[in-house]
Amino acid sequence: MIVTVTPNPSLDRTYEVPSLERGDVIRATGERVDPGGKGVNVSRAVAAAGRRTVAVLPLGGAPGALVAELLDAQGIEVARVPVAGATRSNIALAEADGVLTKINAPGPELSPAEQELLLETVREQSGDADWIACCGSLPRGLTPSWYADLVARAHAAGARIALDTSGPALLSALRERPDVVKPNAEELAEAVGRNLSTVGDALKAAEELRARGAGAVLASLGADGQLLVDAEGAWFADARVDVVRSNVGAGDASLAGFLIAGGSGPRALASAVAHGAAAVRLPGSVMPTPADLAPAAVTVATEVPTDRELTEPVS
């Protein structure tokens, strides 16, 4: 069973549009409303794979009630933490050529009592969990050290932690030695404070995060593939994707695939890449089912191609 924690969940509206022209009236060709937030997406992907998951969420107002209703319809258990502020609503505009424009609201501010209740709810849910996936940005009111506190409490309860966040929250949490961290290329570059131009640059950055406390680093390099670095070594994997429909939630699907497959080693990396590649072929933030996966299209290399230049270098 996989528990997910999303401190700043959302109600996500995705509109498919031919193209964006500033100042014009644009007619959408498709529309979706989904429960959102990185941890929510991980739970949705886990549930789509037929596995049990519990989503720990601070929810408030009508948007929060709709998030819980949508998750319940998908067979996802919700451990709801009531908050006074309304859950945020986000908008994504997906163009026909695959370009995505997102407008993310800040979300409610959590009081000290609500913050403590959220931590306590995670502790209560951690007893039967194989993994706890802590994902996304922190809402107003939570300091960057909040994830570090969560990791410490979860470890004290004997749970394994996968952390997908960025900036000061990621750096602060490293001191509590999360079992897995999952940065994308931009987050990895930000964490080490330097540019990434090659896969080798990403490998060195991942090794630096391990030296700071991460047990393993699962780094998403976008269209270039994914990199896994842990105590046993390093692996690189990629999969060809001919048509990208939407990359919303693709990284979350990858993390779900990684954890579903055990959360360590090249087999889990291959599962992560297969789930991420399937997700970008689907509309909005739809999570892939086993029928959407193409595991034979994934290539895993034990020798990391350090000289390969990144399609989109990060500066």
UniProtKB/TrEMBL annotation:
Family, similarity comment: Belongs to the carbohydrate kinase PfkB family.
Keyword Acetylation: no
Keyword annotations from UniProtKB, A to Z: ATP-binding, Kinase, Nucleotide-binding, Transferase
PANTHER family: 1-PHOSPHOFRUCTOKINASE, 1-PHOSPHOFRUCTOKINASE-RELATED
Cleaved signal peptide residues: none
Gene Ontology BP term (one): small molecule metabolic process
NCBIfam families in alphabetical order: 1-PFK, pfkB
One GO molecular-function entry: ATP binding
The name this protein goes by in its record: 1-phosphofructokinase
Gene (UniProt): pfkB
Domain Carbohydrate kinase PfkB: start-end pairs: 17-290
Annotated organism of origin: Streptomyces adustus
GO cellular component, one term: cytosol
Alphabetical list of InterPro entries matching this protein: 1-PFruKinase (IPR022463), PfkB_dom (IPR011611), Ribokinase-like (IPR029056), Tagatose/fructose_Pkinase (IPR017583)
